[in-house]
């Protein structure tokens, strides 16, 4: 049997390929920077034609917008004539109307054309984050807080759209318009108008940047607390039953509120500093406009400027400073968006602890022999878990691993499935080191029935079909029949369409295990891992499911991780582990005759069962 899977190709930026062997967490996002904006360009440049066309329309809209006051000046000057010479400037009025129309229409067309660019960028970044999170090691997912990560992704995706929109279609056009207006005033009026325009702009931007930089600390802290509070809320809801068992609803609400109290304090500081920013901006604009109008009015009185010039200056001021009124808000939102994007990209920068080698090839499974050769492993350097573990599971045979809690049994399954890489030694399948094959092909060859089966909050059909999403309905039904759960499914009012609830909570432990068995059968793996698959069940249910597990293990290379020895007495070989080492090995009768660790464990369990009876 060949299980082949090519490497996952990617057109994503290099940030998807960090140092894959580092175990350390990345540094905190730090201060938002222009690097965050730069990371967006590879996603936007996919539609470079649309981007360039949108920018062309943007420039056209601003040129038309700046031309409107110029035409208005000519209209006013044409009408400001003695009555006998008065002629209706029809061409100028029509031109004025066309320029107004062009300015609005070009802006609308720009938004329509660029919409696909923004939405595709958001889609691809979301995909990149999800794919990378799935590619991260089990270590990361054991430490993560689901709610906080969900919040970071949600805000980051929303921030991408805001960031692009504000930078390209708000800030850039405003700066372009101000420069055009300043140039026109230098050329058509005198240098004083241009200087006042530029000084007002510089003062406005200076106040805005300084105050916004100061208040960004409150915004960032508020966002962090928001993610923390959201994470606590989600965590308490996921553990709803545990909260109820201990009557800790009030405790959970207080934990949630403790984050919200600090968030409220930061949000108030942010709002107060915004009021200070708005007041400073209003003062700068008022001073600039007053000086400009005063200068223009003086020119009209002394005859150096026409009435049309005064109207033009006023129109330019209204047109130019109106978007500036929102510059502070835009700058703040850009800073917030950069912070949110930075947090989302921080997820992408997290190193992959386990990654395909550069020359990794698809695993070729011929018979399915598994070999552990002098394997050593530690989750943390100061706490070794496995030490010189060496054994072979021949093709089609069953090897069981038993031992006390913490002996390293489940770690063997995690290493074989390559949730982690070995610290020393190697694991081979049919002579191929699993570190030299693609993870997709390795995991396609292995089926796992875990102790704690977690189901999706979807239908029973979906959960069984998840074992092989492309399987036909007949194959799904046959897998359910083989797992002895078909009768149960058909007895339900909604049958296959029954929703199992969050994590499968609507099903009993035995029913969930049978679903797990059915979807593993549907996957039809060559190698099977049974990781304490019945230890959470009652004795009667365990015996019923144990027979089904033995059936699906037949003719498959099987590794059984077991707590109850009665479930492995038929194994071809039993490994007894203590302190990360194999201390005994052999078949059940042989181990009993040795009268060692296994025999002692067997006697204790038999005594416990007799006392229970």
Q: CATH fold name of the largest domain, please? A: ABC transporter transmembrane region fold
Say how many strands there are.
Answer: 10
Rg (CA only): 35 Å
How many domain units? 3
Number of helices: 20
Task: Bin the strand percentage.
Answer: 5-15%
Distance between the termini: 47 Å
CATH superfamily name of the largest domain? Answer: ABC transporter type 1, transmembrane domain
* Lateral arrangement of strands in the main beta sheet: 6-7-8-3-9-10
Helical amount: 55-70%
The level-1 CATH class of the largest domain: Mainly Alpha
pLDDT < 50 stretches: 1-32
What is the second-level CATH architecture of the largest domain?
Up-down Bundle
Biggest sheet: strands, sense, closure? Answer: 6 strands, mixed
Mean pLDDT: 78
Q: Helix-strand pattern, N to C?
A: HHHHHHHHHHHEEEHEEHEHHHHEHEEEHH
Principal-axes geometry comes out as: elongated
Structural class: alpha/beta
Put the structure in a nutshell.
By secondary structure, the protein is an alpha/beta fold. It has three domains: 32-349, ABC transporter transmembrane region fold (Up-down Bundle), CATH 1.20.1560; 356-445 and 525-613, 3-Layer(aba) Sandwich (Rossmann fold); 455-523, Rossmann fold (3-Layer(aba) Sandwich).
């Amino acid at each position: 049997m060949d299980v082949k899977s090519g490497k996952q190709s990617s057109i994503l930026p290099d940030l998807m390929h960090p140092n894959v062997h580092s175990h350390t967490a990345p540094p905190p996002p730090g201060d938002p920077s222009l690097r965050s904006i730069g990371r967006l360009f590879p996603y936007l440049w996919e539609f470079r034609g649309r981007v360039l066309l949108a920018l062309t329309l943007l420039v056209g809209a601003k040129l038309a917008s700046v031309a409107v006051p110029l035409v208005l000046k000519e209209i006013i000057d044409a009408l400001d004539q003695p009555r006998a010479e008065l002629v209706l400037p029809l061409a100028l009025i029509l031109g004025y109307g066309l320029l107004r129309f062009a300015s609005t229409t070009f802006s609308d067309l720009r938004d329509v054309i660029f919409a696909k660019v923004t939405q595709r960028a958001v889609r691809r970044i979301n995909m990149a984050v999800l794919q990378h999170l799935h590619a991260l090691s089990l270590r990361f997912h054991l430490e993560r807080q689901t709610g906080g990560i969900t919040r970071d992704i949600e805000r980051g995706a929303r921030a991408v759209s805001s960031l692009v929109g504000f930078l390209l279609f708000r800030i850039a056009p405003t700066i372009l318009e101000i420069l055009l207006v300043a140039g026109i005033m230098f050329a058509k009026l005198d240098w004083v108008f241009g200087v006042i325009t530029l000084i007002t702009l510089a003062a406005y931007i200076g106040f805005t940047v300084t105050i916004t930089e100061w208040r960004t600390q409150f915004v960032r802290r508020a966002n962090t607390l928001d993610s923390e509070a959201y994470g606590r809320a989600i965590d308490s809801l996921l553990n709803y039953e545990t909260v109820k068992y201990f009557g800790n609803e009030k405790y959970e609400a207080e934990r949630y509120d403790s984050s919200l109290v600090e968030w409220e304090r930061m949000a108030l500081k942010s709002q107060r500093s915004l009021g200070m920013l708005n007041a400073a901006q209003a003062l700068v604009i008022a001073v600039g406009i007053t000086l400009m109008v005063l200068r223009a009015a003086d020119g009209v009185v002394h005859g150096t400027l026409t009435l049309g010039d005064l109207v033009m200056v006023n129109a330019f001021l209204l047109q130019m400073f109106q978007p500036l009124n929102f510059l502070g808000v835009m700058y703040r939102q850009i800073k917030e968006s950069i912070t949110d994007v930075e947090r989302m990209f921080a997820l992408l920068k997290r190193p992959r602890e386990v990654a395909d080698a550069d020359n990794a090839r698809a695993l070729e499974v011929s018979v399915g022999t598994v070999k552990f050769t002098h394997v050593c492993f530690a989750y943390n350097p100061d706490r070794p878990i496995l030490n010189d573990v060496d054994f072979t599971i021949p093709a089609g045979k069953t090897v069981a691993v038993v031992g006390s809690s913490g002996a390293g049994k489940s770690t063997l399954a995690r290493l074989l499935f390559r949730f982690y890489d070995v610290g020393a030694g190697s694991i081979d399948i049919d002579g191929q080191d699993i570190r030299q094959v693609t993870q997709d092909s390795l995991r396609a060859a292995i089926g796992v029935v875990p102790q704690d089966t977690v189901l999706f909050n979807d239908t029973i059909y979906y959960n069984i079909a998840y074992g092989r999403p492309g399987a036909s309905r007949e194959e799904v039904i046959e897998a359910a029949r083989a797992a002895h759960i078909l009768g149960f499914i058909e007895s339900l009012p909604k049958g296959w369409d029954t929703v199992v609830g969050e994590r499968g909570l609507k099903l009993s432990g035995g029913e969930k295990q049978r679903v797990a068995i059915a979807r593993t059968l549907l996957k039809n793996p060559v190698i099977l891992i049974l990781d304490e698959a019945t230890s959470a069940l009652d004795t009667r249910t365990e015996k019923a499911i144990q027979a089904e597990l033995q059936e699906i293990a037949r003719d498959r290379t099987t590794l059984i991780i077991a707590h109850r020895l009665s479930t492995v007495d038929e194994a071809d070989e039993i490994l007894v582990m203590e302190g990360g080492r194999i201390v005994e090995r052999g078949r059940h009768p042989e181990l009993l005759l040795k009268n060692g660790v296994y025999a002692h464990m067997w006697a204790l369990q038999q005594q416990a069962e007799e006392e229970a009876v």
